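# step 3/5: fold
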Amino acid sequence: MPKENQATHQQAQVVKQGTGSNLCESILLAANFLDQVREGSSLTEALANAPSENRSAAQSLSFEALRYKPKTTEALKLFLSKAIDPEVEDLLLIAISTLFSDSMNQYPAHTLVNETVKAAQKSIRTRHAKGLINAVLRRIIENPNALLIDVENAQYPSWWVKNLKKSYPQNFKPILETYLKPAKMFLRVNARRGTLEGYLKRLQQDNIEILEIPLEWQKQAPYAIALKNSTPVNKLPGFMDGDVSIQDLGAQMAAQLLEPKNSDVILDACAAPGGKACHLLEAADIQLDVLEISPERMKRVEENLKRLQLKANLILGDACNSSTWSQGKKYDAILADVPCSATGIIRRHPDILYLRRGSDIPELQELQRKMVSELWQLLKPGGKMLYVTCSILPQEGENQCVWFLNNLKDVLRLDCAGQLLPNDWHDGFFYGILQKKK
């Protein structure tokens, strides 16, 4: 599953495209995205293969539809007497979430209804239901309170609610409510090319508004900037020159926690798309090996390194089989940003809820243990490993650290952030620091 993704860090906003065919085509494209998710593809994959025309608007429509799907599917029960085809439901989800989302630029209600009906007419799978779609949408517009559904009563996947209630009986509702809101857009100033204060002045000159980050987070992520509104990267001063990157506030903790020092030899395992790797290189004059098993994902790392004018040793290889690439090399520090359920970044990737299964978690646990155990052999005595997931499930965080302490040789656990639950300021992450005894 995805970790950091520039397209989704930059929360897309719907741009009003008039009352003509553009909205209709955007709805059709968004419905196609939802159909692909139902078939097992991610929204990221669907977006990558979509035509550029209407893609930005369709991205926003589909993201919002999936965010609100647990609520809207529950609300639709009040207006439907029988089950409907999934393709028809997709069109209704898209229209309803757009009508009632506070975070999107809303189209006039009559326009949205008309264009959704037109979209239904254009597809052989939905044209039979255009009358039903028209009637349901108009009834919902007349009864907006139908969507005032408590998240506890919404139709979330059962495996997810079960895990969440068990792990966070006091916090599960605030977590679900957080996931209904788009994530903020954060920047990370490249310390090699400028200062935080200097970049803030450039934003001010370009009339790009910011939000004041809480003091505690200013200390944890000293080069972070929170934008008041999502902004296309081509509008950010110096972005293409490498002056700044997009990275969630919580993700910016990694370099701070690992504390790279000049001349350190560091490994970033499972590094794509490279946000944390680049942050390490910005923080100190280190020798960095970047490990990634996928050639396609490694290209993302290369692109980020090139834009930021940074250099690293790129290694295509499997973190679970170090003998094929390590050549006996030892590291002062290892960043083990392991594959996980990605349940901490659902508001950036709302498709996760519909792509994951409860049965995935034990398999991911086993992979994480195998990976960390293998990488542990490459760590020098006295060296540190930062174990990172973008999950909020204890099975992939605290429980794993307990397992590492009981199963790795010469291991100490250092004080660290531990579990970060998603809130208005950051995504959900787990951080654990393990040190090899000297």
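# step 4/5: annotate
The mean pLDDT is 92.
# step 5/5: archive (pending)
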